[in-house]
Amino acid sequence: QVQLVESGGGLVQPGGSLRLSCTASGSILSINAMAWYRQAPGKQRELVATVISGGSTNYADSVKGRFTISRDNAKNMVSLQMNSLKPEDTAVYYCHAHVIVLGRGSNDYWGQGTQVTVPS
Q1: How far is CA 30 from the centre of its chain?
Q2: CA angle 66-31-91, nearest 5°?
Q3: Per-residue confidence of the chain (120 residues) as pLDDT tens digits?
Q4: Contact 87/103 with Cβ under 8 angstroms?
């Protein structure tokens, strides 16, 4: 089995910064894509940023230039540096990983979510 554990959420004033981290553990052979999603109250979960094993990244238009996703393949970790935060960034942020599991093929896993609040 595979677990994703997130950390780093909290309350920050507009214009401030936060860094989210997520570490995957368990019977991991390799991890293809890792990503951050977010879900604001009353809204659907949306993709924020992705990074594949080779390091290529992709961002939602709403966070381009403000957020940076990175990963440490040796530690099975993905991070999201969030700068110039806005009230509209308020959401629960979820880590996601597409994992090749030892003896089981591939599967998608989610973290438990971490709250980010930027008051207006």
Answers
A1: 17
A2: 35
A3: 899 999 999 999 999 999 999 999 999 999 999 999 999 999 999 999 999 988 899 999 999 999 999 999 999 999 999 999 999 999 999 999 999 998 889 999 999 999 999 999
A4: no
